[in-house]
Design a protein that fits this description.
about 240 residues; alpha/beta; elongated; four-stranded mixed beta sheet; single chain; Ribosomal Protein L25, Chain P; about 25% strand; 12 strands; eight-stranded parallel beta sheet; Alpha/beta knot
C-alpha cells in the first residue's frame, strides 16, 4: 500500500500539495483507493481517497494506530556538516532509515560548512521515513553552536567521539562498551578537521564521555552512521 506524509492529516483530512500531486498525478490513484498516511509524530492512518485532486487530495480515515520507535530510548546525533553537502544528506538519510530521534548540525571551530539550509535535508528525512516504514520524523535542528549542545541540560548519556592524536586518548572507551540502550543518548561527531582541543575539554568538563568508534579513521558522515548502527546493534542484543 502506498504511504504518504501529512503532519495535519487528523484535522485537515487532506494531503499536502506535493503529496497530493504524487498520489494523483504520478501514482494515478483514484477515489476509493486505500492508502497509508503517517503524521511524523508516530501515528499511522489507513485512509480511503475521497477526493482525487492533484493539489489537495482529500481522504477519509478508516483507522489509525500508534507506531512508536522500535529502538526504545531516544538517539540523538550532533554532527558537524561536511563541506560536501551530498555526504551529510546521505548520512541523514541512512540514520533515519536505521532509526534516530534527533539530528543536530553542529557549528564547530574547525567546521568546513558554516551555513546549512534545512529545506532539502527535511525532504530527505521525510522520504527516508516513508521508505523505511516508520511513522516518526526525526527532529532536525538548525545549525547549532557546539557550546549550546555542551551546555544543554538533559538526563541523556552524552558521548563525544574524536580521533585527533593530540587530544586525550587514554580515557576513551568503545561506544559499544559504554552505551546503555535503556537510556536516551547523545553522540557528538566533529568536523573533517576534528574538534578543537578547547571544545573537547569543555565537553569533558560538562560530563561528556570520550568514546572511540574503532581503530579506523572515519569520515565525519561515516562516524555518525557508525555511532547510530552501534547503538541499534547493542539494543538488538538485549
Amino acid at each position: 500500500m502506498h504511504r504518504f506524509f501529512a503532519p495535519d492529516i487528523a484535522t485537515t483530512l487532506t494531503l499536502p500539495e506535493e503529496e497530493s500531486r504524487h498520489c494523483v498525478r504520478v501514482l494515478r490513484l483514484i477515489e476509493g483507493d486505500e492508502i497509508e498516511v503517517i503524521d511524523g509524530s508516530g501515528t499511522l492512518y489507513r485512509c480511503r481517497i475521497a477526493l482525487a485532486h492533484a493539489k489537495h487530495c482529500g481522504v477519509e480515515i478508516l483507522s489509525h494506530k500508534a507506531c512508536p520507535p522500535h529502538w526504545g530510548a531516544k538517539i540523538m546525533i550532533a554532527v558537524a556538516p561536511t563541506k560536501n553537502l551530498d555526504r551529510i544528506e546521505w548520512m541523514a538519510e541512512k540514520c533515519t532509515e536505521m532509526g534516530i530521534d534527533r539530528i543536530t548540525p553542529l557549528l564547530c571551530r574547525h567546521s568546513e560548512r558554516k551555513v546549512l539550509k534545512n529545506e532539502r535535508l527535511h525532504k530527505i528525512l521525510v522520504a527516508a521515513m516513508k521508505q523505511s516504514l516508520k511513522a516518526q520524523l526525526p527532529q532536525l535542528d538548525e545549525l547549532t553552536p557546539i557550546g549550546d549542545i555542551i551546555g544543554e541540560k538533559c538526563d541523556s548519556q552524552r558521548f563525544i567521539a574524536y580521533c585527533d592524536e593530540s587530544l586525550p586518548r587514554d580515557e576513551r572507551r568503545s561506544l559499544a562498551q559504554v552505551y546503555d540502550p535503556s537510556r536516551d543518548a547523545v553522540v557528538m561527531i566533529g568536523p573533517e578537521g576534528d574538534f578543537d582541543p578547547a571544545e573537547v575539554e569543555a565537553a569533558l568538563k560538562a560530563g561528556f564521555v570520550p568514546v572511540t568508534l574503532g581503530d579506523s579513521r572515519l569520515r565525519t558522515e561515516t562516524a555518525a552512521i557508525m555511532a547510530v548502527a552501534t547503538m541499534h546493534t547493542i539494543k538488538l542484543r538485549q
